Amino acid sequence: MILGICGSSRRDSNAQFLLDRALHGARQCGYETSSISVREKRIMPCEGCARCGLDIQRCKLDDDMQSIYNALMNCSGLIVSTPVYFGGITGQMKTLLDRTLLLSRIGRRMANKVGGVICVGKRGGHEFAGLSTMNVMNLQGMILPGNASVHVFADEPGSVRGNRDSLARAEDLGRRIAELCASLSPE
Ligand SMILES: Cc1cc2nc3c(=O)[nH]c(=O)nc-3n(C[C@H](O)[C@H](O)[C@H](O)COP(=O)(O)O)c2cc1C
Questions:
Q1: Which of 25, 33, 38, 124 has the smallest CB count inside 10 Å?
Q2: What is the pLDDT of residues 93-150, one digit of tens each?
Q3: Where are the chain's structural domains?
């Protein structure tokens, strides 16, 4: 299964639209997909208690991350799609990624999963947003294909719909994630 997570809380989100196309690409390669958006989720910030993996095997914060942990552990590929906010990722996405600390501390549960990133912004900051997300994936022991971060320029809600080149690049990322998953774990 290839999981997509969208970091936008906006209706008619460009990041969600691009993610949907990437997941479509993964399905073309025979993978099942699943999608999560921070928009519908209640995710509290990591408190840095550093107890996870020591005296407790779960996060003590009882919120929607509990089901997201299951989705993350069950996927073989992960595509993170986020708007660029002030030259970085959205606060909601950063909060979610911080909470994945649990998964490394209970036995490197994200290791060897395949990762990719989509960053969409009006005019700049995509590089840092992409690099910071790929950094989390690298630190989690994940495997990234070449050109793992796709950068798209769009601003108005839903405006990316008219950008065929951007949609094609998102779809191609989904296919490449699926192909790498398949080559790592042939059926
Ligand atoms: C708080 C905030 C900060 C933003 N900062 C940037 C930025 O630094 N660079 C940029 O190119 N776009 C920036 N934008 C524009 C969004 O990235 C852009 O509208 C994007 O398409 C939103 O994606 P969404 O439709 O998935 O929410 C910002 C938007 C908001 C609301």
A1: 124
A2: 999 999 999 999 999 999 999 999 999 999 999 999 999 999 999 999 999 999 999 9
A3: 2-184
Q: How far is the CA of 128 from the centre of ligand 1 (A)?
A: 14
pLDDT in tens, 21-37: 999 999 999 999 999 99
Cα of 173 to ligand 1 centre, how many Å? 21
Pocket test for ligand 1, best of 86, 93, 118 (most atoms within 8 A of CB): 86
Q: Whose CA is nearest to atom 8 of ligand 1?
A: 86
Around ligand 1, the residues with Cβ closer than 6 Å are: 8, 10, 13-15, 83-87, 120-125, 154-155, 157
Place of tokens 């208690």: 49
| Separation between Cα atoms, residue 144 and residue 9, nearest integer Å | 26
| CATH architecture observed for domain 2-184 | 3-Layer(aba) Sandwich (3.40)
Give the up-direction half-sphere exposure of residue 89: CA atoms within 13 A in the CB hemisphere.
28
